[in-house]
Amino acid sequence: MKFTCQKSILQEGISTVQKAITGKSTLPILNGIHIKTNQNELILTGSDIDLSIETKIKSDIIEEGSIVIDAKIFGEIIRKLDNDTIHIDTIDNNSIEIVCNKSRFTLIHMNSEDFPELPNINENMIFSIPQNILKNMIRGTIFATAQDETRPILTGILFEIKDKNLNLVALDGYRLALKSENLDTDNIINAVIPGKTLSEVSKILEENEESVNITFTPNHILFSIGETKIISRLLEGEFIKYNSIIPEEYNLKIIAKRIVLLNSIERASLMGKDGNTNLIKFDIEDENMVITSNSQLGMVREELNIILQGEPLQIAFNSKYLIDVLKIMEEDEVVIELSSSVSPCIIKNKNTNNCTYLVLPVRLVNN
Amino acid sequence: MKFTCQKSILQEGISTVQKAITGKSTLPILNGIHIKTNQNELILTGSDIDLSIETKIKSDIIEEGSIVIDAKIFGEIIRKLDNDTIHIDTIDNNSIEIVCNKSRFTLIHMNSEDFPELPNINENMIFSIPQNILKNMIRGTIFATAQDETRPILTGILFEIKDKNLNLVALDGYRLALKSENLDTDNIINAVIPGKTLSEVSKILEENEESVNITFTPNHILFSIGETKIISRLLEGEFIKYNSIIPEEYNLKIIAKRIVLLNSIERASLMGKDGNTNLIKFDIEDENMVITSNSQLGMVREELNIILQGEPLQIAFNSKYLIDVLKIMEEDEVVIELSSSVSPCIIKNKNTNNCTYLVLPVRLVNN
Fold first, then answer.
1. In Å, how far are A35, A202, B63, B203 from B59, measured between CA atoms?
2. A210 min Cα distance to partner chain B (Å)
3. Chain A / chain B CB contacts < 8 angstroms
4. With an 8 Å Cβ cutoff, are A105 and B298 in contact?
């Protein structure tokens, strides 16, 4: 195998496929990048079996072939080379030679035949969505996935397509995040994608309106973003019927300025931090909400103006869950729907109906 | 005690004195900031005994007094408050009340009488130097201080004033860093300042030409920077006679472009990293220097143009020590003086005679 490639192009390609390489695999071959010539381009692939990323980059191919090369050291070498043309050539002793101006590296490579084959996916494109919208939907839900593996299905995000809508849903037993967008498709899909996959997909997605194409098979999802393909296995099992958790009715409704509320909660949470309970109490009355918290260090009282429709209420929360939601939301004003001090709290945008957040309250001993 | 203060001013003051507070002291009082009213200002002090920082900030004093307040929680609260006037007042139960707009905190305070007194230093100013120059001198030497406590004196930097020169010297047994500046004083000083102190001093020093005033006592050094005073104990013991280590003669001299040499060494070091030896070899001949390194992963060969005065030489180094020096130097070209493959290597600026770096070579088995 022999080719030349511009340093910046090769570096970007490596950086893309490295997102699938954990570097901690017990199989050495999975710590490598698979490089294969293909007419006037290179196909780079990284994989940890569950997640594989493949990207195509421009290259002058002088002699065809394929190798696997340790991703970490190869990435470091390419990154440190001059910003110029890089020449790569297989030489004796299972090695490649990397030459760029007056720098010359010899590096042992692995056998490309040992690299796992990617799942064969028939690219009947099922739907496509602008990159910035998908990126935003992932960002708006991924924080609510479960971090422990007690219930593996909750470490993923539900991709649900129905009624010409794409819904992304994450929940961890204490809170739920739902983002929705219209989608021009009659397909019906119900698949759970690992959170790790979507975290890497989100890094590759750009803030523009170009499309990402998404294909499903019974066991896999394929994202095609420009010259890059991301293939991930799906999580097995049934996702929780999230619709039955979200209450449709409420007894009181608050409208609040999002940043003012966020700042007040963040300050109130400083006192709760010490005992690691993050407990804050809301005292909602007329045009006024009082947030309090205390610990052995002292106490805090925050007051803010709200619009209240309904009866006054006292309710307590783990401040972390509210902070996560209010930080991720985008509108200036939020609507909070409550029913009782032990019922779920629903947070929505005031104007756009594209997200629903649910946070469970903390039941106080003296209630 | 009762006062008001602008949030941004109080926050900056806290941030300055927090640099002396490790937060890990077994004496709770040392995790606190001492706050004392003083006419129309507050004096804030943080201390870990070895290092104390005191700063004065503008404040409207309504009632005099002094308290000690936990630095971490106090700093977090002030940082999160609205950017407006903060009202602080001592109330019952050893507490203070912090009020800013609609935020109200009650926080337990400690007894200011338990706070250690700062060493009394007679501020006969011994010398003054522009902040940016001192900052640069610290930056140019601190990396060469010893990181382990085997020989405590080597964890400090020697401040030597003689012959109208200020010299800062650090060494750790493998390399030495010396920075010099002219100083208009007839004093003679020889004191070793803890590296930790200078690291914090360096963060407080600004990139401008305003003066920092420096006073010595037999056991302490005092830096006065604007409204801030930093007092540190000196390290006990005799510093190594560094002059006897720096060779005055050499057999060959190289002139090289600093960044080109740095990049070549950084690339060559990628191969040495795996075995953690960082070993790179120089092969110096005429207008050409070849740098090589190898490990079980492969090998690297870098070539660069140099100007050589003297005989060819082969010599090996720990790449880390050369990288540290070449990164910190500022001129485009460096001069390297060598005598043999087992003698120290001296690195200097080509044009300005304000620094001397020494790196010991690695003795190769086959030499």
1. 65, 48, 11, 24
2. 37
3. 82
4. yes
Q: What is the rounded CA–CA span in Å between residue B356 and residue B169?
A: 9
Cα separation, A158 vs A239, whole angstroms = 7
List the CATH code of the domain at B2-114. Answer: 3.10.150.10
ipTM over 0.85: yes
Asked if B104 and A300 come within 8 Å (Cβ–Cβ), the reply is yes
Paired residues of B61 in beta bridges: B3
Tens-of-pLDDT digits for all 367 residues of chain B? 999 999 999 999 999 999 999 988 889 999 999 999 999 999 999 999 999 999 999 999 999 999 999 999 999 999 999 999 999 999 998 999 999 999 999 999 999 999 999 988 988 778 899 999 999 999 999 999 999 989 999 999 999 999 999 999 999 999 999 999 999 888 899 999 999 999 999 999 999 999 999 999 999 999 999 999 999 999 999 999 999 999 999 999 999 999 999 999 999 999 876 565 789 999 999 899 999 999 888 999 999 999 999 999 999 999 999 999 999 999 999 999 999 999 999 999 999 999 999 999 998 876 4
Asked whether the beta carbons of B19 and B55 are under 8 A apart, the reply is no
Contacts of B303 in chain A (CB under 8 A): 102, 104
**Under CATH, which architecture does the B127-244 domain have?**
Roll (3.10)
The DSSP line for A212-234 is EEEEE-SSEEEEEETTEEEEEEP
At B184, list the tokens: 């208009």
B333, exposed or middle or buried, with CB in 10 Å at 0-12, 13-18, 19+?
Answer: middle
pLDDT bin (cut points 50, 70, 90) of residue A367 is very low
Q: Which residues of B touch A70 (CB under 8 A)?
A: 297
| Fold classification of A252-359 (topology level) | DNA Polymerase III; Chain A, domain 2 (3.10.150)
Domains A127-244 and A252-359 share a fold: yes
The whole-angstrom separation of Cα B20 and Cα B230 is: 9
For B177, the token pair is 């860093």
**What per-residue confidence (pLDDT) applies to B291?**
97
- Tell me the per-residue pLDDT of A105-125, one tens digit each, with 9 for 90 and over: 999 999 999 999 998 898 877
**Which residues on chain B place their C-beta less than 8 Å from a C-beta of chain A?**
70, 73, 76-77, 80-82, 95, 102-108, 263-264, 266-267, 270-271, 274, 296-304
CB contacts, 8 Å: B71 with chain A? none
Which among A95, A108, A267 has the least Cβ separation from residue B81? Answer: A267
Interface test with A, best of B299, B303, B327 (most A CBs within 10 A): B299
Strand, coil or helix: B102: coil
Which residues in chain A are contacts of B272 at CB distance < 8 A?
none
Asked if A264 and B103 come within 8 Å (Cβ–Cβ), the reply is: yes
* CA angle, residues A296, A299, A303, in degrees to nearest 5: 160
Per the CB < 8 Å rule, is B106 touching A303? no
| CA A273, chain centre distance (Å) | 27
* Domain locations along chain A: 2-114, 127-244, 252-359
Q: Which of A80, A81, A107 sits opposite B298 (nearest CB)?
A: A107
Beta strands in A259-321 (DSSP E): 279-285, 288-295, 298-305, 307-309, 313-318
Could A297 and B107 be called an inter-chain contact, meaning their C-beta atoms sit closer than 8 Å?
Answer: yes
Q: Which residue in chain B is spatially nearest to A271 when comparing CA positions? A: B73
